[in-house]
Design goal:
Helix content: 25-40%
CATH superfamily of the largest domain: P-loop containing nucleotide triphosphate hydrolases
Strand content: 15-25%
Number of helices: 11
Shape: elongated
Radius of gyration: 24 Å
Largest sheet: 7 strands, parallel
Length: about 325
């Protein structure tokens, strides 16, 4: 004989069945708990009405009560940092976020490089300003499935920013405390160095982990060590190091060369006892696609696979967190 609650479950519309947390029948009252995470007010009302319509009049049901639960999303943060500028950290951040999204993660991207924001261009949404609701910014969707918030969307293009520490901290807060909806993971593109943004990040929004980007050359590696030390002092585990601009193959003659050296980041990672996350080659195609707002990770081929491999390692690290 079919249980009464099973009959009621079967009577629910498909959307309600997919969001059902529990259903009880107590003295004629059908009490339904639904997961309403990610639904706006109109969608919540429609879902509640649909459940009541479906269960009202069912055998043994004299009253229908619907409870909509929206547990706060446990949003993880991955910081992408470097000790110095010009190592391709922003390009790695954008493509890492897109590669993670293509692997099924709900990812948002924060461009925390207050003084030199570049993510709007990298994602092809330059000139698009975010809206706001309830004093919170609403991230701008990108064509690649990764919403973005960047200081570059809030200021006049080409305008210089001359802010002191507290203003920088407030700006970072606006980007991180935005209406991210069902985003589960934020990739944060930090400015180079170990300044106010990094300190604010560690104090207010402690990342779950950090990815360090460096070129193979000794000078970049020396500065990368400072970034690593800052995260370690802040109690943020370093997921590993990425060696960017590692190797160049001439498109005309096919000869390979290493204008920035080779293997430096891998050796540094080994010396630090941390993971080496791979090499991203110095390729014209990556540079051209990034400048055009069509990130390589969104496509196919070798360029996309470099970032997909990086994303798989970061995703595995996240999955192993307790």
């Amino acid at each position: 004989m079919t249980e009464p609650t099973e009959t009621l479950r079967a009577a629910l519309p498909p959307q309600a069945q997919s969001k059902l947390q529990s259903l009880k029948l107590v003295e004629g009252r059908a009490i339904v708990f639904l997961d309403a995470a990610g639904l706006d007010q109109n969608e919540r009302e429609q879902l509640e009405t649909a459940v009541k319509d479906a269960l009202t009049g069912q055998p043994g049901v004299s009253e229908v009560r619907v409870a909509l639960i929206a547990n706060k999303t446990r949003r993880r943060i991955i910081a992408v940092g470097s000790g110095k500028g010009g190592v391709g950290k922003s390009t790695v951040s954008a493509n890492l976020a897109i590669a993670l999204a293509r692997q099924g993660r709900k990812v948002g991207l924060v461009d925390a490089d207050i003084y030199g924001p570049s993510q709007p261009r990298l994602l092809g949404i330059e000139g698009t300003r975010p809206d706001a609701a309830d004093k919170q910014l609403i991230p701008v969707p990108s064509p690649w499935g990764v919403p973005l918030l960047s200081m570059g969307q809030l200021i006049e293009p080409g305008k210089a920013i001359a802010w002191r520490g507290p203003m920088v901290g407030n700006a970072l807060g606006q980007l991180l405390d935005a209406k991210w909806g069902d985003v589960e993971l934020l990739v944060v593109d930090l400015p180079p160095g170990t300044g106010d943004v990094q300190l604010t990040m560690l104090q207010r929004y402690k990342p779950d982990g950090a990815v360090i980007v460096s070129t193979p050359q000794d000078l970049a590696l020396i500065d990368a060590q400072r970034a690593i030390q800052l995260f370690e002092l802040g109690g943020v585990p370093v997921i590993g190091m990425v060696e960017n601009m590692a190797g160049y193959q001439c498109p005309h003659c096919g000869e390979a060369s290493d204008p920035f050296g080779q293997g430096g980041a891998e050796a540094a990672a080994e010396a630090q006892g941390m993971a080496f996350l791979g090499r991203i080659p110095l390729e014209l195609a990556i540079r051209a696609a990034s400048d055009a707002g069509t990130p390589p990770a969104a496509g196919e081929g070798a360029g996309a696979e470099h970032f997909a491999a990086l994303a798989r390692q970061v995703a595995t690290w996240l999955d192993n967190l307790r």
